[in-house]
Structures
1.
Amino acid sequence: MKPNELFKHQDKAFWAHIRTLSEKLGYTVRGKNVIYVPAFDAMVRAMHSLGLDTDHLQNSNNGPSDYAKTLIAYFQYRADVLNDTVQGQLMDASEAKQLFDDTRLKLGSTLAMPMNKQKGEKKAVAYLTALVNMLIYEAIKGFEADFDPRTLTTITRQGRPLRTLARRVDGTFPRSVNPIAIWEIKEYYYTTTFGSRVADGVYETLLDGMELEEIQREVQDAPQVLHYLIVDAHYTWWVKGKSYLCRLIDMLHMGYVDEVLFGREVVHRLPALALEWRELAVRAGYHPVEVTPLPPSLPLETET
């Protein structure tokens, strides 16, 4: 999912309003399985209850100002895209297994597949990670990628480190030094609650996005690193974590990730993205390699 251009270039004060109102009024409709869209009156009451000014939200007739109308339009967009699109893209473990099996058969892939860290009957292929690996591997043939970076992502200039991200990501193209694209995978098929570990995954992605934003803001002619977040598990994200899905949509429009891919979306979107990365690699002077390094087959940190 790409950001909606209508909301992509709002300033940080706009997003402060979105976060403040979402926190005060809630993210979901109580007793219903849908994302909440606050009415104008509710927004004004919420601001007043927090001791905040509302003059900029009201026009001369005490109706919504243009600024307030933009806030409401974004709340409506966020609700619509989550209720109508994202919910249907998210899979449970059995659906993810079926999509993995179908995709592997279609591609004729013989790659060794990464396993989750579960035990007993829950031990299985890390389905989302395996799908990502297969799809990218097939699309970039002739170029390398790191499907399990064991090092921090670093941007260099004239052979010297310019910026190094604080944490490791789940994949880089073509490598972790001066990458064109990086991605993070959050799959939680067997998680029964939306706990702090899952929430931390959201904030880790936010941290990476803020660091990449700082590079663009502070370093003249800094190279752009495309940043992707890939998530799945219907129960964890939709049933238990709808407020965090809202945060993901906010993060996307704040510019901290270039795209968020939800569940089934990886099958049709990732190959197209990987082809775009190849074109960027050619322009940047990267050359094809004899053999694309294989994705890892060892268990990953991802909990599925």
Note: The CA atoms of residues 172 and 182 lie 4 Å apart.
2.
Amino acid sequence: MARRPTIKTPGFIWLPRTDDLQLDIKVNSRSVKYDYIRAEFSRSLNPEIGEFVVDLVNAGGEFTGLFSLGQFVELYLDFVDGTTLRFKGVIDTINNRREDFDVLELGGTHISSELLDINVTASFVGTKTCDEILKEIGGNNLSGYTYTNVDVSTVKPTINWDEKPFWSCVEDLCKLALFDCFVDDDKDFHFFKKGSKVNTAEAAIWNDTLISMSGIGNSSTTLKNKVTVYGEDDNGLLIIRRSQNDSSMGAYGTKELVIRDSNINSGVNASELAYANLLLNKDADTEGKVFCLSLPSLSPGEKIWVSDPVAGITEQLKVFKYTHKFPEQFTDVFIEKKRDIANLFEQNRVKMKDLERVSNPHKMSGSANMVFDDFSEVQTSDSNVVVQNGKISLVTGAEGSVTSKSFVQSSSVSQVQLLIVGEGFGGVTFQVSTDGGVSFQGVQVNELTTLSSPGTDVVVKFVLDASSVIDSLALLMK
């Protein structure tokens, strides 16, 4: 007699809590756990930074003039004696309010918020992994930070930063490595593969810790399946790279993401960033919010069990952000990254503003760039052609021919626009091939040219004269 196969699904048994929550709040090392009337502490994954607010009863002026900007605020929280540090922040604002009594409001950000104000200038050329880069820029720019919880990445990006905020550089590394990152209360970096961390001590369980849920489910609000990255080479010529996912576009329609960053100064960097953002955004995310009894040991990026049998939900979901609230002893947990309508409007406004700054009137979708730092972009050249100080020119003679390496495109190129930075190139002849250099068609600088034979294997050929010096070349394509 045939038997049905046994299917085993991993599960868990949640044991209800039996201990009472213990807490302490300290401002400049002074306990205020009997003096506060409201306190909220939020932690989040990159690119956000945690924040806090503490309202103190100041009816008799006890706290007037006692605290200063820059002092520390700490939350201690556990089920034993309230001595486990769960949040450490810096006071950014001190406000006095008059309600039924005087209130002193202290507001600020997590101690890692200084990473928003420290800028990085650095370049990497594909020889170091993302974790190595994080440690290097940290060692060169930060003091007092550690890297105990930085996991190893296999991605070795080509990337350039010029006075870019440290936390934005970390965001770039997260996207390239497909990692998450936050900094804990001891200033230790946590840099780890998305979805790799699980918290077995905390859960949002119906009829126990879970109070309510808000919109848990799949959403295509943040989905992007066509990513275009714009950068600039060292001479200001446009770099364009695009990645798209046809399956996602077929399922959800075309949803575009445009990234513009002058720090992206190489085609390799632009390609890596476009591909990484596509991987991050091409699928519909599970997102929403759960409202729970306090979950003290939670950390950003961890997966926790969420169980509501009525809603048909029992699964592990990743925490993007959470907020501890007191005196209620509640925790708001944000699953993945929730993007509200206001933020969407703001991003669209920024996108429209950026469109005014980027010169791509013909809506080209890719580019082949030659910056002439060396001969790496050149396939063949005459013996009198030299590359010096980031420029290509003739050392002797009346003319010299240069043929670029092959720039293979993912889709057929039918139109091109050639942009040049240099001197005396009015007499230089330029040609473009789409079949790997078998046949060529002449093109003029700055003009949109429709190619007679579209193809994917793009090669640029030009003949220099004695007066011509070219700093960089960009062939825009679509």
Note: The first strand starts at residue 22 and ends at 27.
